[in-house]
Amino acid sequence: MLAFDFPWAFAALPLxxxxxxxxxxxxxxxxxxxxxxxxxxxxxxxxxxxxxxVVIKSNWAQKILTPFAWGLLVTAAANPQWIEPPIERVxxxxxxxxxxxxxxxxxxxxxxxxxxxxxxxxxxxxxxxxEFISRRKGDRIGLIVFGQAAFPQAPLTMDHESVRLLxxxxxxxxxxxxxxxxxxxxxxxxxxxxxxxxxxxxxxxxDGNDTASKLxxxxxxxxxxxxxITIHTIGIxxxxxxxxxxxxxxxxxxxxxxxxxxxxxGEDRHGLEGIYHTIDDTTPEKVTRSIYRPKRALYYYPLxxxxxxxxxxxxxxxxxxxxxxxNNKHQASTGIEISNSKHEVPTRRQIANHKTxxxxxxxxxxxxxxxxxxxxxxxxxxxKHQHDGKAGL
Length: 393
Prior knowledge:
6-stranded mixed beta sheet; Rossmann fold; 13 strands; alpha/beta; 3-stranded antiparallel beta sheet
């Protein structure tokens, strides 16, 4: 769609007409050469003198190009733009981080997949979390894995397919055999340190208790709360187990409550699916939509066209003038000729070519008769004889 950024500029279109109508025409006054025998010469040639003036006449090309070029300049000043179709931009209003435990206890085959086959805990978690990622279309999702150490597996991104591919690549024990829940929360804090999103959510899944963190989980939860991060915890291990195999549900609950989140217990695959659906319901998709219409400037088209037209006209006129100058010089070099049929009056150039020195006032005509050109004497004598003949009759 064509639009103008400054449509009021078209009010300048009638400006040249107003100038032509209101302002007086430009006049130039220049000195002229006076000769004492001008009246005799004009009378001999049978011409009537008229007030002299140099009038620069316009041609048809000027009359067409001038208003057209002015219209192009005004159009360029109005800044024409081509507005492209609207583009809807969707921005995430939430950062969602998924922290998954990769400790050695995740090898326990106490889960059943969708086909009814027994699988280890990590395989079941990857299936459920993968489906959860596919449903969160409007969130920026990041993936954190932790064991004895914690590190980001996928940065916060809207490319959910890449997050799912990186999720499929995780393996049990790749982060160490122990569990560091506090360090995983610390990584989540670090990942959202420069994020401009106000709502930040961490879903932490583990099947054990914290045994290797450098940052205590309760301290990490306090820092997360200060940074505006809500933590939901999911425990899938056996709370009755001993040592590192026992999931500490009470510690997970304290972490969630400290940040305003919820704590869940997943005993099987169906329970795990229900937990992630509950998270879907409590934290629905949240995005900001903005419509952007790209604009493409077009002012250089009318501006360039006007410049080329004016430049081309002047080049053509210069060429025509250059062609006519040699012809004028050739005519001036042939001498001064007066035709009785056309009654041509001698011009200043003709007089200069014959080096005629004329007195500057009429009182000196008698004293400078010898300076009168021969051709003019013959014309004046002929005119007198004709006058005398008519008087005799």
